[in-house]
Amino acid sequence: MPGPLEKYSRQVLFPEIGEDGQARLIQSQVVIFGCGALGTVQADALCRAGVGSLRIVDRDFLEESNLQRQTLFSEDDVQKGLPKAVAAEQRLRQINSQVRVEGLVADVNYKNIDQFVEGTHCILDATDNFETRFLINDVAVKYSIPWIYGAAVGSYGLSMTVIPFETPCLRCIFESLPPAGISPTCDTAGVLAPIVNIIASIQVAEAIKILTGNSHCTNRKLISFDVWKNCWKEYEIANARSEGKCPACQLGRFEFLEGKEGSTVTTLCGRDSVQISQGGGNSLDFEQLAKRLRHWGTVHFNQFLLRFNLDHYEIAVFPDGRGIVKGTKDTKVARSLYAKYIGS
What is the domain extent for residue 283? Predict the structure, then answer.
């Protein structure tokens, strides 16, 4: 098997993919929202599989505790203070130079998600909150883009494949946002790397089916797996769309995409942190900001972010003004600290 397919020869030998399927993969474009535990496994697998273009959107920067389960990163990446999307892009380019990799340091929201999914053939969910997932669901249904939901916490994980207007979408199953505090989080339950790898691998397998023209083989159920209790379950959801009145895929109401639902302040899973998203998108002058902040605490910055340590808190600021306040889950405290030291 000479030529560009040689790298993927073992995958091409799988008859359901073959040379035609691999050629489809090479021409495909995938977006991954989130580059933490699930996203790193997804990105690594898709890059090695030969997806033509891989766009990774993530708002966060690296910390040492990420290395337990976020497989693309190293201690060196942490020491450099790199954003996850930047470190992921650098690593993936080393893995497969034939794949066009784009790592974007951004907080996905209703104002920018359209540009991230333009030209995309499949979306993979690697986020940590339902608000963003509902936004992904809205844009996927609106533009008829297949997407694969995934979540993992503790030893337990879930996945569901959404093919708009063919299968139930996420809002067919969850019509509204789950109440805050009702579900365990990485903060309260931790997370085991094996369940992350299982769920992410399921998501990648579903994506490869879609991208190679085998969407009829995708899973049409909500599936769950507990790696500690050795428990695998499948939930029938086929009738969820026909039996309900889904705001998105039946009524065409894209409330999250239109900005009618959602917020600009987000408590981050597993981080004891709050994110503050500022409008305007102005570029901060880190040198000037650092000079001002050094009067109050220690400051370190590079071209990607500035980190300011004050007493029991850390404020990380990105060039567009978005900030992550670490050391509190109280949004009022986070807003106050951001306004006092960075600006309102």
Answer: 265-341
